[in-house]
Structures are given as C-alpha cells and as structure tokens.
Design brief:
Belongs to the ParB family. By secondary structure, the protein is of the alpha/beta class. 52% of the residues lie in helices and 7% in strands. The protein folds into 4 domains: 88 residues, Conserved hypothetical protein from pyrococcus furiosus pfu- 392566-001, ParB domain (Alpha-Beta Complex), CATH 3.90.1530; 60 residues, no CATH class; 70 residues; 38 residues. The chain has 15 helices and 5 strands.
C-alpha cells in the first residue's frame, strides 16, 4: 500500500457481530413481562373511557380462558412504578377476572411520546365518543407541538392561521384522516362544561351546535343548561350561532338565553316521553329522539309474543 495513503476500515462492534436474529428476538421478548397490577398506574388525564358492557364481559371471559393475548404497553416511571399507556380495557378485564398480573411490553418513552402512542392505540377503537376524541386530539396536538419545539397555546385558530397550529394540525390531520377544521371543532368541545359535554356524548345535543356553545362562558353555559331543562329542548345550530353572536357582542344575558331557547324550532322533534331512568337506560342511544315510544311498544309486543309461545309449550 502506498505511503501516505490512509485506509479506513470500520469494524463491526463485537456484540453486533455475534448477535443473531434469535438473540435480537429474545432481547425484544425480555421487555415483555407479567407485572403486578398493583404496580401499574393509570395514564394521567386518560381521555378514553372503560365501559362495563357486553364487550367487557366477553373480554373478561376470553382472558379467563386464554390469558392476555396482546400485551399492554407501559413505561417505567422514576419512582419505580409503571404507567399504563395502552391496554386500559385489558387491565380492567384482568382485575375482573381475578388476575393479579398483566402481561405488558415495557417501552422507553418520554411523556410526549407516551401521549402520542396512547392516543394512536385508542383511536383504533370501533366506537369513540366525541368527548374522547376532543381531549385525545388536544393532548396529541400539544405533545406534537412540544416535540417540535413550538409553543403550546390554549386558543387554536379554527382556520390554522398561526404557524404553530397550522404545522402541527397539518401533521395530525394527515395521521388521523380528519380535516384541520374538524380537529379544531373537536378540540373546542373541551371548553364545554361537563354536563353539556355529557349530553353531546349521549347524542342529546348535536355536534355542530355544541361547538358553537363552547364559545360561551362557563356561567352562560350553566344558564343555558337550566333553560334547556326548563324548555325540555336543546338548541338548534341556528340558535347556538345566535347565542354565540350575542356573546361576542357582549349582549348575551340570562334573559336572552331564555328567550332564544323558548323559540319554536321548525320541524321540532317530539319531546322525550319517558323520564323514568329504568326505562330510558334500556333504550339504545341509536334510537332517534321522538321514536322512543315506538321502540318500547315493539319491545313489549315482542315480549308478549315470547310469553304466549312459552305458555303454548307448557300445555
């Protein structure tokens, strides 16, 4: 080799040289372990609810028979405990099944990385409530902005006019498959008082009127809540827009809210007939308002036919 001529040879690290695919797989598996449920903390401000429904009963039964097939995801906290990132339904099902441990994959994640993984994993659910999307989108958008070194501000521009919101919301819109404006509308729902937000989840208030109502102050929203109860009606989009306009002009008083809610809406639907919670909780939320009576009548007719068939078999 000629003098003055340098030859650079990059040597593979000793561990990498002798590491096989099998050993890499074993290393990955070593991060999957059974962790005592008592050592796993809930994710702070977790926006997704865990319902005690038929799906949960089936999950509990499956875990009793087969164990947890897909590990939950956790991260190790500074105090030595674990923080649950995804798998809240699996954790609850394990508790109901009487298990003391949960199969988990331990990941090294920062707070913002954990938020993004938590939201991504839960947005795969088949049914997501408006309130869940609202807080999930808000948490993820703020995490994305912090990761990019952008300042996090409470007020987001609906049209993405400021650079911080526009850049992050473009990224989020692409990932979740919704427009920036729709993401903004969902985030606006986080400004609703809990009682009205629950009505949105229960489909008692439509999505778009709820977005307009979110601009009202907390006091104004509670006044509206009283007016809705008194008139046994919820605001239409036109009424919600009218209240927002009066609010922006500084003219939205309690009397104005009551007056708007007393207006007769065109094509106003029949008011709910049943007030007994024992009846209303058995009526599926998919049944449109005004059709509850038809649903109950059909259910009773079906039940009566069932009784008659049983009597016929007993003869």
């Amino acid at each position: 080799m000629a003098k003055g001529r340098e030859s650079k040879i990059e040597l593979t690290a000793y561990d990498d040289l002798f590491e096989t695919d099998e050993s890499r797989a074993e290393a990955a598996l070593s991060k999957i372990r059974d962790i005592p449920i008592s050592e796993i903390d809930e994710f702070p401000d977790h926006p997704f609810k865990v319902f005690m429904d038929e799906d949960m009963e089936q999950l509990v039964d499956s875990i009793r028979r087969n164990g947890v097939m897909t590990p939950a995801t956790v991260r190790l906290k500074e105090d030595g405990r674990y923080e649950l990132i995804s798998g809240h339904r699996r954790k609850k099902a394990c508790e109901l099944a009487g298990l003391e441990t949960l199969k988990c994959e331990v990941k090294e994640l920062t707070r913002d990385e954990a938020i993004i993984v938590m939201v991504e994993s839960n947005l795969q659910r088949s049914v997501i409530l408006p309130s869940e999307k609202a807080f999930a989108y808000k948490m993820r958008l703020e995490a994305m902005k912090r990761q990019a070194g952008r300042p996090v501000k409470g007020n987001y521009s609906p049209m993405g006019n400021n650079l911080e919101f526009a850049t992050s919301s473009d990224e989020l819109a692409e990932k979740v498959g919704e427009s920036k404006n729709q993401i903004f509308r969902y985030i606006r729902l986080t400004e609703l008082v809990p009682e009205i937000l629950q009505m949105v989840d229960d489909r008692q208030i439509a999505f778009r009127p709820a977005v307009e109502i979110s601009y009202l102050s907390e006091g104004q929203q509670y006044t509206l809540l009283e007016a809705m109860s008194y008139n046994d009606a919820t605001p239409s989009l036109a009424q919600a827009i009218k209240m927002k306009k009066f609010m922006q002009e500084g003219k939205l008083t309690d009397e104005v809210i009551s007056s708007i809610m007393e207006e007769e809406k065109p094509n106003q639907r029949e008011k709910p007939v049943f007030r007994d919670e024992r009846i209303t909780k058995l009526i599926p939320k998919s049944i449109p308002r005004g059709q509850e009576t038809d649903f109950v009548v059909k259910a009773l007719e079906f039940y009566n036919r069932h009784l008659q068939r049983n009597k016929a078999h007993e003869r």
